[in-house]
Amino acid sequence: SSPVHPFELFGIGGLLSGEELEIQRTVRTMGERELRPHVADWFEEGAIPARELAKRLGEIGVLGMHLEGYGCAGTNAVSYGLACLELEAVDSGLRSLVSVQGSLAMYAIWKYGSEEQKRQWLPGMAAGDTIGCFGLTEPDAGSDPGSMRTTAKRQGTDWVLNGTKMWITNGSVADVAVVWARTDKGVRGFLVPTGTPGFSAPDIKKKLSLRASVTSELVLDAVRLPADAMLPEARGLSGPLGCLNEARFGIIFGAIGAARDCLETALSYAAEREVFARSLSSYQLTQQKLADMTLELGKGMLLALHLGRLKDSGELSPERVSLGKLNNVREALDIARQCRTILGANGITLEYPVLRHANNLESVLTYEGTSEVHTLVIGRTLTGEAAFR
Ligand code: TGC
Ligand code: FAD
To answer: Where is each Acyl-CoA oxidase/dehydrogenase middle domain found (predicted)?
Structure first.
């Protein structure tokens, strides 16, 4: 009998509306035609044409697509998730570009910015003409952003920022950095045009993961900003953490995209590859791997959709986001590694996407809250006891 796709086996398509399917198709088509042919080279070279990519992603409407107004598409959350899924099916680095632009930098302005800040920045960012980055992590403050050292101090009506941010996606290509800093009234967010004197963003080199993505340090050396550079509505750590919920949501779907791409690759490879005079897919050991991976992929997709529907009905708590991020990234990474075994030696090259996805997913497991942090969030929810410190 003819093979059935894992998502078809689970009946996933029937759970999506016509509009959601259409958005998914548009992003998939663009990704397959315009991104996939180049992505292995970008990964190998450790360089992407970020500006052109941002412009093209803006044209298809995926930058800040789940936000309302200011040039954003205003789609539902599930559609945004599906766009992330299709981009990450090509490469986690491309989904990262979109996550950071839309869910972190744009969302921070959209949620916490003044009307003037929204009008100044959001339309250009939605179009991909202006690139944003989001600086929370520091060399000595990752999982515990509350221990950040970057400061913003008043000098007259101005603010002066000093400190270093680390591991910042889109950092050196950004036009505007959303920087979180400690003030005498707690953590606040600042919009830093990257041409401001004292700001620099050296790239982080020699990455073995997320190579098709720009990752930089942000150095703030007495960066002087006017009073209106502060995001007026963000107070305390709940400001940046509120943005992370948005980006983590996209990752819940995105990780499924990477895993789907691996499984599709392994299914077709196993069907073609002959070992001991029979197709690799005809062996029970292979079928067990394929069946187990299909179960995890399908369950992860159902979880993503469930959380997406909860987000659309306003019932997605941060703890629920932790369930999805922890499960789907962990399972996607397992699937990518298992698929690599099916491809044998061919699996270690960039001719196939599986080890590229696996390497990328190592970063995805760590950023936006490590798997340990999300485990502890779930543990705190279940027991009422915080075990972070
Ligand atoms: P805690 O005392 O729990 O909370 C401090 C304040 O924040 C509030 N809060 C949240 N608000 C919104 N959403 C959430 N998810 C929130 N979690 C906590 C909380 O209610 C409280 O508010 P208030 O008003 O009472 O002050 O904070 P804690 O210091 O104990 O830390 C908790 C912990 C460890 C869970 C948190 O700090 C955490 O999530 N750490 C992980 C840090 C992280 O995820 N960093 C990501 C950086 S950005 C990134 O990685 C981008 S990669 C993107 C890409 O390339 O795709
Ligand atoms: P640490 O916090 O030092 O953690 C090290 C280990 O200790 C981890 O396994 C962790 O889970 C564990 N650990 C920590 N606390 C506990 C605990 N209480 N109990 C048990 N174990 C614990 N950040 C941004 O702000 N903006 C970005 O755009 C951005 N992009 C990124 C892109 C890439 C490619 C990468 C790799 C990272 C990016 N990050 C970004 C940073 C990312 O969010 C941090 O790496 C992450 O939050 C973890 O921080 P850390 O690396 O300092 O690890």
So the answer is: 133-223
